Amino acid sequence: MQNPLILDIKGNSLDDGPGIRSVVFFKGCPLSCVWCHNPESKKSAPEISFDGDECVACDACIDLCPRGALSRKNPYFIDRGRCDLCFICVDNCPSGALERVGKKILIQEIVSTIKNDKPFYKTSGGGVTLSGGEPTFNMDFLSELVREVKAEGIHTLLETCGLFKLEAFAQKILPYIDTIYYDIKLIDPKLHKLLCGVSNETILENFIQLNRISEHSELKILPRTPLIPDITATKENLTGIAAFLHKEGVRTTHLLAYNPLWFDKNKKIGTTCPIRKEAGKGTWIPQEKIMEYKSIYKEYGIQA
Can you name the residues that pair with 255 across neighbouring β-strands? Predict the structure, then answer.
């Protein structure tokens, strides 16, 4: 069983499902969405993050780096081509400006951390959310984790992009999942491949099959669409998604509000954002526009 990297285990979350929840963020994703709000979760390998606002300019890391990969002349401080991820700089950074992105955590450690919050789950109707990245990217590890969590009597929720082998998912994951938040980002397969790196054929087919399973079981599945200005948040795309959901008998969906704060995350991990912040992507979507998008779904009898 491959042991994936975990980005974080966030407790006391109110935004990732019903009630008070603990969220386990996995590192690694089969998609490569150009607008990814968690770009540090794309790669399955470890990375180093540098936050210039936290740096105290002591230059200890520069002096210690055996590869000479750190310099204030570098665009993002770290020359990723030279860096071999020895993490000496991270271990000796006094301010926390340099951080390790992704670490291996044993399943027993994750479950132990989660169990500490069981009283909050019970009183609020909460539980554990598996997020990412893409949790199903490591199917065997996820299977063992959710099995252990369910054995503790804890509600489980999976946030997924939907790109996985359904047969393996149905056998290894589905028996231990109570709720699925399922992202449907773009309805056009060519646009999906252009902007997310792969076609959406498998994603849409998996949703159809899982939605049908939910009709005859206790599984709850909620389709979601992130609102990205001029990309997913267009009348053409949202109308296409609404028509697809209507055809599959879906009556409820969720539109994820756009968050422009993700741009700075790319700088921290040394990547150039493929979308320009100035191109209408650096501000929040006005509430009136969100209401307009919701009205598209309403025409199809779907509450968004």
Answer: 225
**What is the CATH classification number for the domain harbouring 196?**
3.20.20.70
Return d(Cα 18, Cα 16) in angstroms, integer. Answer: 7
CATH number at residue 70: 3.30.70.20
- Cβ neighbours of 95 (radius 10 Å): 13
Residue the block writes with tokens 């936050």: 51
| Amino acid at the residue 264 | D
Alpha carbon separation from 191 to 89, 196, 198, 201 (Å, rounded): 40, 8, 9, 12
Q: What distance in Å separates the CA atoms of residue 52 and residue 57, rounded to the nearest whole number?
A: 9
Q: Note whether residue 193 is domain-resident.
A: yes
- Output the six-digit token pair for 278: 């100035």
Q: Does the model's pTM come out above 0.85?
A: yes
Residue-wise pLDDT for 39-83, tens only, equals: 999 999 999 999 999 999 999 999 999 999 999 999 999 999 999
Residues 151 and 254 reside in one and the same domain = yes
65-to-78, 92, 95 alpha-carbon distances in Å: 10, 10, 17
**Tokens encoding 133:** 């990245």
